[in-house]
Design brief:
homodimer; about 280 residues; alpha+beta; Inositol polyphosphate multikinase (chains A, B)
């Protein structure tokens, strides 16, 4: 029983007869391989390389969705059988997860890409926060008292630095509106098991690894308020996703991802600091 | 008594009737303010802001040339009196300094620049190591047994990642050729007072500071082999130079410079590690 993922916030969706990913009830995420632009091939190549790479530390492997191979499935666009990547469905253990999909790096193109691809990315990077902040929010859903807030793609693309700060505040608040209560900031962003600590672990690895350059990949933050309130763990997760444009690092660190990651870490740190300031004022 | 700097390795030079910087015998470097493209104005604005900024830690201020104000001087191109920035001449205490000028960042343009400027930089960034490595060597001179090696600008622009590694090896060797002796690697790159430690200090600051974005600025490495052999200090220096394109950080870290700096640090670390490997084999 395959179905359209309920909690997909960015990327191509399997709706209106289009090609997109599917999920099942046992925690698998099926991502169709693209034949038009070698994107799918690129991602499969990466997963094969990564899963057999013995130089990936165990604590870093946890940041990546589990890869179960490929499977021929009826594609969501009705075009018949098509190979799909079989991946871990990151949202499967969560009822109402808040999710941020953040494309990391101040450049989403790469030298090996076609000129058209470079020009398209170059334009999008300049007109979103990619160049200015070193990352951009690609999609999100935030669960709160009144249900999910899931803004349209067009609105997300128009986000400014201040919008990003607002989103990061809302993500860890129980209320909506201009005065976030930062209710979950300390537990979700702070602490030795919080999102900031996870991001710092990633940063340390990216300061050193020279095997892969992760162009146009995303950090996905997930926070399940209900799991947290019921004392279930894990209630927050950090994953890396979307590896269609991973290229060989050739002995050079992924300075593009690293710079963007450091900028994002600074944003999260500032929201955490703001939350402490706001609590002290109470 | 003003003269053309002997140890300038990059940038516009005051030769053949062109406009360029001058030095005197008392350690001052006079950089002409440009009137054609606001570059000079940009750099003066930065030095004014930076020198009165009380949030710059003392240990970070040391990385910047001392700023003594401006002075009207006869320009080197014979065009008459022109305002010049008066800066510290970093090379003045050294007889035969080896120098590397490394433009840091995988992007030398910035959103506020004109379209022509962006397109020019974009092209240069793709065709040098700027995009691939996150930095490019802009100029260099290396002093060794046979005098200075100071390659032409055209050759420097064609450098690959392997050329960069060779240059970093030569910089700390007493000989030339394909088998560098790494003679000074440990003292110059390593140790608690070495170049790597200085670069790490800068990195820590750039992970935090959100006041300035240093577009198209350079890290200058200087190493004076003769001072070292005679036991004089300092025999090696790390400076930041060229601030014509510094823009407001607007509360965001300089992720472009930081990423490039981390990549450069990894290159230097690898050369230091190679040098230890080579010594152990001996």
């Amino acid at each position: 029983m395959l179905k359209v993922p309920e909690h997909q916030v960015a990327g191509r969706q399997a709706i209106d007869g289009k090609l997109g990913p599917l999920i099942d009830n046992s925690g698998h995420f099926y991502k169709p391989l693209q034949d038009d632009d070698e994107r799918g091939t690129g991602e499969l190549t990466f997963y094969h390389s990564f899963s057999s790479n013995t130089r990936i530390p165990h604590h870093i492997r946890r940041f990546f969705p589990v890869f179960y191979g490929t499977q021929l499935l009826k594609a969501s666009d009705g075009s018949g059988l098509r190979p799909h990547l079989v991946l871990q469905d990151i949202t499967s253990d969560h009822l109402n997860p808040s999710i941020l999909d953040i494309k990391i790096g101040s450049r989403t193109w790469y030298l090996e890409a076609s000129n058209d691809y470079i020009q398209n990315c170059f334009h999008r990077d300049k007109t979103t926060t990619t160049v200015s902040l070193g990352f951009r929010i690609c999609g999100l859903q935030i669960y709160n008292e009144s249900g999910f807030w899931k803004p349209e793609r067009k609105l997300v693309r128009s986000f400014t630095a201040d919008d990003v700060r607002s989103v990061l505040r809302m993500f860890v608040s129980s209320n909506v509106g201009p005065e976030p209560d930062f209710c979950f900031a300390d537990s979700v962003y702070g602490g030795c098991d919080g999102i900031l600590e996870r991001l710092m672990e990633l940063k340390t690895w990216f300061e050193d690894q020279t095997m892969y350059h992760f162009c146009s990949c995303s950090v996905l933050l997930l926070f399940d308020k209900e799991s947290f309130l019921k004392g279930k763990t894990p209630f927050a997760e950090v994953k890396l996703i979307d590896f269609a444009h991973v290229v060989d690092g050739n002995g050079v660190i992924d300075h593009n991802l690293l710079g963007g990651l450091c900028s994002f870490i600074k944003f999260v740190s500032q929201v955490l600091a703001d939350s402490k300031g706001s609590t002290m004022e109470d």
